[in-house]
């Protein structure tokens, strides 16, 4: 039996920066998983992926990643996606660094 | 050390110019990612979890101070202030931007460094014994051979798009410090009964999902036959190696499927065709290369300064006991600088540390540095009287950790903190093991024990050949760590044996502690090292300590 479809986000790496990006419902790209579009329909997910793949000047290696709804937006269900939206665990680099800087500004 | 001639410099400049235009064409849309990817990989540029990663070759692990300073410059100017030394004697930068990479490569070219063939299905950076040219147990410096192979393999038209990558290592010493038997092809410098120097060629070693120990393909290849012989081996594999399945494409599988005898026979046939095409130009080149590797003129003089510091300073003594190795010249030693401070990321060095090591090498160490596959930095030639001053400088730079060969001198791949292929993290596991044994103040009592950690089955962290190997996997969406025992990365190479079911992330450090406790109980004396004890008593006592509940169930 085919496995039930689980919600997805479209994610990729940015061509110039190399960092993790997500597709929004407005068909723009965001660096925040919370701002990504959570896709609950399987056919729609494939279509959205094709749309992402048609933007090779922005997104590299687009794929569908499992996600679940959260209070602020999509949340990861797998630790790989948790690392991708955060950064490495040995230094406060990557997305967590940008967040720390943003907090420091406030 | 090898110095580029005009041809080398022009070749590298042209190659960098080509890559610069390839990057421009990718950015302006003339190249698709599918077209660009093989080109960027061939120039060492990966796209990882959080960013691009640039892998720079450190040919046979040898650097001069200016090259080390250039590595520091890249870290400070285009990255986040540090670099990561790898298990193949390369350095990786984890945060470059695509547009900056051509400038990074040009900065490297100024000091004769490059990132060519550090990825892709090509012949990769040739690695060597990190004590080459200095070790007391060496027949001959293997680096001229490594440099010859580097020049021959760079942009070799037959070997740019092979079925899979091909890794070569060379050594001229009786003790294998280059993990020769885990390479696709390895060259061991030997002497025959007549006293002539030649090469034993091993083939078919490798780690990854199907670990294999390399086998001797030819006991003695004459000096002027080496390059055509290697070309024949790779040519045979390139033609016969499987391209239907990337997991079965490496030469170890070809050797396994066809048998060593068949590979030998095909190599001999191919050699008969290839050898006449080598008209001696390679030997003329080799003789020129050899001149570049003449040993420095080692200083004379006693070692009173060293002896006095050794007797009076316990911190210096502890460091000298673990971090020095025997040098071929009187009054000299080989220094291993540990990048494995307890709790630090194995293999990482900051730009400041790189500059300080470059300065120390220039002032005290005949201007030479090495990177080991164990992810440490080596000063291959040091007069012992300079060691107290070097130690003081290293201490000030946070580089004086006295742990070489001990439990905290861990090899770890970048794992899921950086690598797109990883299935689990490696770095935090290494950090926690090192910190735990430092807290317990046990590591000097435990003695020589190598832990090697990989964050996926590809085994960049050499877990199969660790005395204790740790492999991080994804088990149903959770990090899980399998342990192997009894691996050996030396001339007595062996693949470790799995203990049994894996351990969760928060169970892995306690599991290692139980293994070490079992070793301390079982060893016959403090002189019996972990591997010796394991070989004597076998897996059972360790299994009993790791899986007490299941033991009871069986009983």
UniProtKB/TrEMBL annotation, chain A:
Amino acid composition bias (Basic and acidic residues), ranges on this chain: 94-106
Region (Disordered): 68-106
Pfam families per record: DUF2849 (PF11011)
Highest taxon in the source lineage: Bacteria
This protein's name: Uncharacterized protein DUF2849
Organism, as annotated: Tritonibacter scottomollicae
UniProtKB/TrEMBL annotation, chain B:
UniProt domain Nitrite/sulphite reductase 4Fe-4S: residue ranges: 119-272, 409-546
Protein name listed in UniProt: Sulfite reductase (NADPH) hemoprotein beta-component
Keyword entries, A-Z: 4Fe-4S, Heme, Iron, Iron-sulfur, Metal-binding, Oxidoreductase
UniProt cross-references to InterPro entries, sorted A to Z: NIR_SIR_4Fe-4S, NiRdtase/SiRdtase_haem-b_fer, Nit/Sulf_reduc_fer-like_dom_sf, NO2/SO3_Rdtase_4Fe4S_dom, NO2/SO3_Rdtase_4Fe4S_sf
GO molecular function terms noted in the UniProt entry: 4 iron, 4 sulfur cluster binding; heme binding; metal ion binding; oxidoreductase activity
Coiled-coil stretches noted in the UniProt entry, renumbered to this chain: none
This protein's record includes keyword Iron: yes
Originating organism: Tritonibacter scottomollicae (Epibacterium scottomollicae)
Organism lineage string: Bacteria, Pseudomonadati, Pseudomonadota, Alphaproteobacteria, Rhodobacterales
Domain Nitrite/Sulfite reductase ferredoxin-like: 52-111, 346-397
């Amino acid at each position: 039996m085919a496995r039930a479809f689980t919600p997805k986000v479209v994610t990729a790496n940015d061509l110039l920066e190399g960092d993790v990006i997500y597709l929004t419902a407005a068909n723009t790209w965001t660096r925040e998983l919370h701002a990504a579009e959570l896709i609950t329909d399987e056919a729609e997910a494939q279509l959205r992926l094709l749309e992402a793949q048609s933007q090779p000047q922005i997104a590299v290696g687009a794929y569908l990643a499992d996600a679940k709804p959260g209070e602020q937006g999509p949340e990861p269900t797998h630790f790989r996606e948790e690392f991708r939206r955060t950064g490495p665990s040995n230094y406060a680099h990557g997305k967590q660094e940008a967040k720390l800087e943003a907090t420091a500004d406030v | 050390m090898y110095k580029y001639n005009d041809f080398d410099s022009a070749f590298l400049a042209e190659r960098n110019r080509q890559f610069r235009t390839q990057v421009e064409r990718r950015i302006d849309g003339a190249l698709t990612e599918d077209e660009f990817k093989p080109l960027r990989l061939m120039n060492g540029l990966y796209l990882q979890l959080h960013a691009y990663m640039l892998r720079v070759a450190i040919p046979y692990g040898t650097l001069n101070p200016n090259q080390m300073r250039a590595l520091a410059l890249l870290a400070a100017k285009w990255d986040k202030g540090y670099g990561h030394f790898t298990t193949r004697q390369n350095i990786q930068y984890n945060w470059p931007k695509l547009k900056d990479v051509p400038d990074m490569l040009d900065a490297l070219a100024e000091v004769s460094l490059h990132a060519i063939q550090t990825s892709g299905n090509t012949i990769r950076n040739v690695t060597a014994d990190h004590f080459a040219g200095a070790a007391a147990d060496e027949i001959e410096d293997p680096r001229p051979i490594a440099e010859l192979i580097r020049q021959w393999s760079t942009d070799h038209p037959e070997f740019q798009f092979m079925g899979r990558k091909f890794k070569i290592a060379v050594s001229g010493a009786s003790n294998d410090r280059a993990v020769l038997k885990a390479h696709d092809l390895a060259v061991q410098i030997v002497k025959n009964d007549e006293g002539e120097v030649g090469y034993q060629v091993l083939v078919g070693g490798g780690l990854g999902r199907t670990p294999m120990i390399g086998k001797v393909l030819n006991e003695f290849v004459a000096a002027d036959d080496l390059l055509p012989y290697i070309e024949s081996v790779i040519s045979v594999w390139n033609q016969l190696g499987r391209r239907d399945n990337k997991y079965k494409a490496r030469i170890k599988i070809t050797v396994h499927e066809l048998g060593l005898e068949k590979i030998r026979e095909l190599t001999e046939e191919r050699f008969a065709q290839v050898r006449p095409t080598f008209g001696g130009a390679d030997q003329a080149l080799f003789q020129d290369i050899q001149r570049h590797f003449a040993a420095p003129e080692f200083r004379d003089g006693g070692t009173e300064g060293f002896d006095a510091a050794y007797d009076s300073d316990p911190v210096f003594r502890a460091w000298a006991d673990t971090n020095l190795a025997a040098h071929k010249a009187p009054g000299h030693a080989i220094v291993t600088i540990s990048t494995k401070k307890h709790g630090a990321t194995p293999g990482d060095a900051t730009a400041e540390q790189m500059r300080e090591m470059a300065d120390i090498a220039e002032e005290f160490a005949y201007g030479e540095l090495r990177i080991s596959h164990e992810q440490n930095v080596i000063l291959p030639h040091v007069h012992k009287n300079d060691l107290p001053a070097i130690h003081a400088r290293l201490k000030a730079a946070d580089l004086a950790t006295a742990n070489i060969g001990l439990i905290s001198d861990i090899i770890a791949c970048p794992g899921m903190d950086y690598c797109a292929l990883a299935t689990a993290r490696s770095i935090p596991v290494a950090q926690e093991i090192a910190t735990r044994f430092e807290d317990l103040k046990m590591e000097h009592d435990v003695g020589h024990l190598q832990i090697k950690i990989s964050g996926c089955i590809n085994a960049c962290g050499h877990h199969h050949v660790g005395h204790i190997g740790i492999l991080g996997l994804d088990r149903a969406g959770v990090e899980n760590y399998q342990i192997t025992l009894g691996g050996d990365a030396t001339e007595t190479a062996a693949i470790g044996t799995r203990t049994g079911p894996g351990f969760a992330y928060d169970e892995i450090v306690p599991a290692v502690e139980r293994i070490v406790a079992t070793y301390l109980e079982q060893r016959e004396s403090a002189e019996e090292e972990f591997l010796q004890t394991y070989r004597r008593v076998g897996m059972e006592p360790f299994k009993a300590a790791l899986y007490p509940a299941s033991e009871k169930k069986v009983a």
